[in-house]
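User: Please predict the structure of the protein below. I'd like the answer in structure-token form so I can feed it into my own downstream comparison script.

Assistant: Understood. Taking the following sequence of 323 residues as input:
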Amino acid sequence: MKSVLFTRFFILLPWILIVIIMLDVDTRRPATPITPRPYFSPYAVGRGGARLPMRRGRPAHGTEKRNQSRPQPQPEPQLPTIYAITPTYSRPVQKAELTRLANTFRQVAQLHWILVEDAAARSELVSRFLARAGLPSTHLHVPTPRRYKRPGLPRATEQRNAGLAWLRQRHQHQRAQPGVLFFADDDNTYSLELFQEMRTTRKVSVWPVGLVGGRRYERPLVENGKVVGWYTGWRADRPFAIDMAGFAVSLQVILSNPKAVFKRRGSQPGMQESDFLKQITTVEELEPKANNCTKVLVWHTRTEKVNLANEPKYHLDTVKIEV
């Protein structure tokens, strides 16, 4: 038994010695020094010891140019305000006319509606209407003198002049912003394209008007981008043979000509447009719009006179309805 154990011991002894020698050699080998990994702080030290966050992908602090200028976004040009002066007066179709006009104006950006009543005071109907219209607006009133209400005399003169006076007073003590003025009678129909056309008016712009002067349309005649005459059914010899709905004026022109108004004295019927435009421009300066005045974008529609023959003289209904 002992001989067997000794035999096995001497067989394993060389292997045990080899293992001991290898371990001894490994422990005597010099250890590799551990180099600490650099620590990159997410902050750079600014002036006064302030910790500033460093951006990824940028050079480390000290290698980046200080106060590096960056291109600033350019502000968008301000959209010129369109000022629409609308004379109006009490009649059965007044609210219907104003409703149609308001529905158009709501779709026009940067528009201010100046509504001027031919009355000694603001009416409740128009005041309530404007309050619900949801439009930037100004409500004015001025009565037409009785002596000027005869058939054949110019209408809405005092109301248009009141709108002009409000505009001049509004911009009297401040730098005028870009703007365009036009006279929007409440019995006309307007294409939205017309407002895009007039917004670029530099001085006075013109365009055709449909259903006016006893013709399907009237228009300025244009050659080489300049107005040279008028296609009209009535008095083509007028200096400006154009309808009130057929032109727009730059706000700056209105402010630069404070005495330019619609005249009563010496003004003949149908000559108000010419008498006004003569004060601020010449035919040569007119700016043709609407594809060189070949497109109709406004119509002098005029609501048909309503038939109220069966309306009772006294109110008989149990409720009062505003029409």
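That's the full token string. The chain has eight helices and 14 strands.
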